[in-house]
Amino acid sequence: SPSSCSPSNVSSRKLSVDEMYLSDTGGQYLDGTTDITRTVHWGVPTPLQKEAYTRVLMGNIDLSRLVFPPNTAGGTVESFARRALWDVGLNYGHGTGHGIGNFLSVHEWPVGFQSNNVPLTAGMFTSIEPGYYRDGEFGIRIEDVALVVEAQTKKPFLTFEVVSLVPYDRNLIDLSLLSPEQVQ
C-alpha cells in the first residue's frame, strides 16, 4: 500500500487562492541545516487569519529580539513568543522551538524552549516557531533558525541572530498591530 506521505487521487486536491498554506521545509547542507516554516495566502485572507498571522509573527519577532542573561533556560523566555497571542486569548499547543543539528537530527536535543532543556549559551542554534491553529479551518506557523549570540550590552548578555533568509507573507501582515521595533 502507498505511504501516507505519498500523493494519491484519494487524498490529493487542487490548491486554491482562497485558503492558507503552511509549508514546513528544510534540508541538510555542507554549511548547516535548515528548518523553516512559512504560511502564505495567495488571495484575500479573513480578518481573523490576518490578525492571527500577525500575532504569530509578533511572537516570533519578540522572542528573536529578546536580550537575556547568560545561563537562561529556554523555558524561562518561551512566553515572549506567546504574549501577542495571549493578549487576545489565543495560543498554540506545540513547543516554541528546538535545537538544530548539523548532519544529525533536525530536531536536536537538548536545546530548546521546554522546561527540561539546557540553558541557552552562545553558539547554539535553535528554531523559533510560534503558531496558531483553528481546527478544520487553517493553521499558521512561522519558523526561523536562530543562533544564540552575545548581545551588545555592558555586561555579557545573550540574544538571537536569525539566520533564515525566507521572507514573510506581507499579504497576511496587519502593520497596525506591529510596534515600530517589530517592523524594523
UniProtKB/TrEMBL annotation:
Pfam families for this protein: Peptidase_M24, Peptidase_M24_C
InterPro entries, A to Z: Creatinase/aminopeptidase-like (IPR036005), Pept_M24 (IPR000994), Peptidase_M24_C (IPR032416), X-Pro_aminopeptidase_P (IPR050422)
Stretches assigned to the Peptidase M24 C-terminal domain: 156-184
Highest taxon listed in the record's lineage: Eukaryota
Keywords: Aminopeptidase, Hydrolase, Protease
Molecular functions per Gene Ontology: aminopeptidase activity
Secreted recorded as keyword: no
Residues annotated as domain Peptidase M24: 3-149
Keyword Protease: yes
Protein name: XPP2 aminopeptidase
Organism expressing this protein natively: Chionis minor (Black-faced sheathbill)
Lineage: Eukaryota, Metazoa, Chordata, Craniata, Vertebrata
